[in-house]
């Protein structure tokens, strides 16, 4: 029983104030210990939720919720991939409240894409806390919309992942809700600056949960966990494990939305943006590798093999911290071709880039180099060839309506220049070639960031480009390569003709799909081809 001198926090009779005196009965002491030792018992006996039909009720856990709670108790790192409306947030709030009640001086951080979403989850924990028996509560020290603290010294904070509110704090449990919906730039900054200080402890816990939302950092986290390339324990909950959902429900949901929406939100398939160059079903099968060397800006997936042939394609940026300069290395010795290394840097000085290109190309058996010469790329490729005297720099010639042709040395044509100019026609042909190779397993992509860019390389009016908020610098290197493989010079060099390998039906399908943005030459834009070398 509570003594006559009972205090409430700020007049809220559902909250016990700090330092309130309670007389415990033997049964309450026994019950308290049982709740402390058994989170499942605690939840199904005392944790209240608001049911859409029945109002305030004590939760009844599904089998998978019990599994998840046990994982939270036993593991330090957990990643949950869950279907929409499968109670993922509710399950986590149970653990956070239980952990806070029965552990002293622990700080919990509850993060989401937006602070409002994080505070909504915090409000669920507060609702459940207010409906605990008074003897099971800790006295409240602080209580507001963004945090609350108990007299045992434990506290919980709700914030967005872009917030600096948890920087420098000693976090015992970090929970990130709907992690797949955090913009990549914010997620990368958070993981780089905040996450290491949290995960470096020996007992701190990190949980992340979400439904899929494209091939982003959460996708990488899930795939690495599945392959045991990180320390996260992986657990998934698909639609058919949620009570009340059967085949009839599935068919009704698809009819009311779309098969794509159902696949992503309920079957938990990672799909790219709508209208991608590479079809979504193919993107979902691409598998990235961990690099052999990971120097942040330069990742190698395969080291050079003596006698193998390589092509290096280059996309150049201004080096001002915005777009990236990219050097992409592909092994062309045999089909399927293989992406073996990627250099990606948005701060490298264009004056220094030619030396980086030459070093990487030389390492890969003096590989052929094709530089996109638009804008500042013109200076980079001229420096590479004329000043550094890298002889394996590819050049192009303009031959009227025949377009650009690529080759390995200066010929007699007057309209000859180093590198390739990315015209509408070159881009259309390159996109077509790239699509054909990837969808027919003739080009293997090993780099995660490349797959990520492909998943957001979408149709915009009559062309393809990065979706809003995404980048396509590596993809544009692949587009240059897709154009190169269509050139006679390349086919003579490798004895591989991808166009000849396609069936007529597939060629027509590709051409029909790509036609609206550039296969028709209006006579106003000369194109290019690789020139044979001297």
Q: How would you sum up this structure in a few lines?
A:
The chain has 534 residues and is α/β, with parallel strands linked by helices. It is built from 19 helices and 25 strands.
Describe this structure in words.
The protein has two domains: 230 residues, Rossmann fold (3-Layer(aba) Sandwich), CATH 3.40.50; 248 residues, Nucleotidyltransferase, domain 5 (2-Layer Sandwich), CATH 3.30.420. With 534 residues, it is α/β, with parallel strands linked by helices. It has 19 helices and 25 strands. Helix content is 35%, strand content 21%. It starts with 7 loop residues before the first strand and ends with a strand. Strand 1 and strand 2 form a beta hairpin.
Oligomer: single chain
Overall pLDDT level? 85
For this structure, the CATH topology of the largest domain is Nucleotidyltransferase, domain 5
Cα Rg:
29 Å
Q: Give helix % range.
A: 25-40%
Strands, count: 25
Domain tally: 2
How far apart, in Å, are the first and last alpha carbons?
98 Å
> What is the number of helical segments per DSSP (H or I, 4+ residues)?
19
Largest beta-sheet characterization: 8 strands, mixed
Low-confidence runs of at least 5 consecutive residues: 1-5, 498-525
Give the percentage of residues in beta strands. 15-25%
What is the CATH architecture descriptor of the largest domain?
2-Layer Sandwich
Shape, principal axes of CA atoms: elongated
CATH class of the largest domain: Alpha Beta
Give the class from helix and strand content and strand pairing. Answer: alpha/beta
Strand order of the largest sheet: 7-8-9-6-10-11-5-12
